[in-house]
Amino acid sequence: MKKILFPLVVCFALLCNTAYAVDAKLNKTEWTLQSLSGWNAQSPAKLPQPATLAFSGDNVSGNDGCNLFNGIYTQTAKPNSLRIPTDKMMSTMMACMGGADKLSRMYLQALNRTTGYQLNNNILTLKDARGRKLATFNKPATTLPGTNWQVMDYHNGQQGIVSSINTERMRMTFSKDGGVTGNAGCNRFFGTYTHNPRNNSIAISQLGATKMFCQQPEDVMQEEALFLKALTSAKTYRRSGASLELSNAQGIHVVGLRLK
């Protein structure tokens, strides 16, 4: 069954009137959760929706393994102090099942218990008031060449962002020699790409495809055409570990992908 997800814009109210000094060691950094105290299941980084954490100014945001969140972090004069109060956070309200729901709750609890942090060889460790390790993070990979992706959604240019049984069939590979190949749902496609990691610009061009006709799944040919059109509209990219987002010249999300 096709799902059309309309872009959600959440306006965050002023959470606190106090001005906090920005921590230069944390500012403008992004992290992917690697381990979580009390979590004994599959590595958090290998779950379909890895948990993340990002710092920008005095703002903290990320994905808890289920929902996106946004809030503030605070510090004191004590070196490497850090508080991430979850009661001051705003988040999306998706319902998740099983491991994702459990990880989400445990992760947010760990953030709320954090009173300090440690940075060592690009590994971020959050600690509680007794100095015990709550969670560890690595910096996510940002490179594009030599990566393989599963398409999660695309913008159809009309109603919004589409995720369906057809996107589950879509794949995409960025080769190291500037070629892009994949499956658009029915046909295989091929073309070229250029990108600039300094400003995250990207151009996907010279797209061609095989000429098969598929009747199933429903609407696969229509979705294939819209997906390929969305690809060629991409002007910027943002990779954060296992996630890749392509956006158009207006900054609108056009394709979302997950690392295979």
TrEMBL record:
A Pfam family it matches: META
Domain of life: Bacteria
Signal peptide span: 1-21
Name the record gives this protein: META domain-containing protein
Keyword annotations of the record: Signal
Domain DUF306: 24-137, 143-253
